[in-house]
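REQUEST FORM: STRUCTURE PREDICTION
Request ID: SP-0412
Submitted by: Lab K.M.
Chain count: 1
Length (residues): 366
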Amino acid sequence: GNASITATQVNNGSSDACGIASLSVSPNTFTCANVGNNSVTLTVIDNHGNVSTKTATVTVVDIVAPNVVTQNVSVTLSGGVASITAAQVNNGSSDACGIASISVSPTNFTCGNIGNNTVVLKVTDIHGNVSTQTATVNVIGAIPVATINASRNPVYYGYAPYSNAILIASGGVSNSWNTGATTASITVAPIITSTYSVTVTNAFGCTASANITIEVIDVRCGTKLDKVSVCHGTGSTTNPFVNICISPSAVATHLAHGDRLGNCNTSLRIGSLELSPESDTELSFSVYPNPNNGMFNLSLANVPNKGAFTVKVYNTVGQIVYEEVVLYGQKSSWSINMPSETQSGLYIVIIEDRGNVFRKTVSVTK
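STATUS: Completed
RESULT:
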């Protein structure tokens, strides 16, 4: 903050015939208050005591940049945004002549900035000198994981007990469905295959979206479309598949005995698996007894000698309730004991064999 000069710096060839005894300049020290032009006096004394003076101009320039000191900052997202001020990042920056302004960039953060972010603190002194220094801003938050679970998929248009599905969103504290609903769960009853989407927002205000396609199988039949189409039978030689059109009141009894809704040539979707109608081509297997109380036998025919296959049992919501990997040649028949908490209803036995999927429907009655 201080500067000084000597008489020699101001002198520009002063002379005396008898010789100069001394040169002096006043003032010879300056502070920030003297930035700009200053008048000084050069005094020359010769060897006989004669004195002469002359004024000069000394221009004081501040070229010293500020000293910038930063500190790291943590901020928490609220409503999906957070902001900081320069004062939060500044940690005692200084300048001998005085600071004119302090700024930081960037100042605003969103869910896309979660984690550590580099910001720059800029300090400008009163004479325009600038210094910068970086700091780290830790943005606290999280991106939600949005999921939708369906109580039923597909739904069966034309048979009320199975014509709707409950969709449950998870991952946030608030929800926005493409139907306009804002609750966590909604009940849908589409009449054509439809896709539903939800945007969830968590406590930090960050969002994520998910969607689900609910398949619709139209099971209406009859001249007035007031009856229900059901696939009857087990597909065996003695009890082949037959499409029947029955009164809605009779459907529950048929389903309890292993029949399924829709025509026999209607595909069935379990979870992400697209399953064809029950078929014993390529790999033949049977389940018995059917219906059962949760314990049944599975028997395979035409079993290869090498490799392995996977046996899975799904409920109608697409959840796996039993799974086993079996080596070919290890056994061709065995008992399956469903978990004790298994409820009464229809279950689908799946055998996945070298990329092929084969299925049987079983009915559990407790």
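NOTES: Residues 269-274, 276-282 have pLDDT under 50 and may be disordered.
Reviewed by: T.R.
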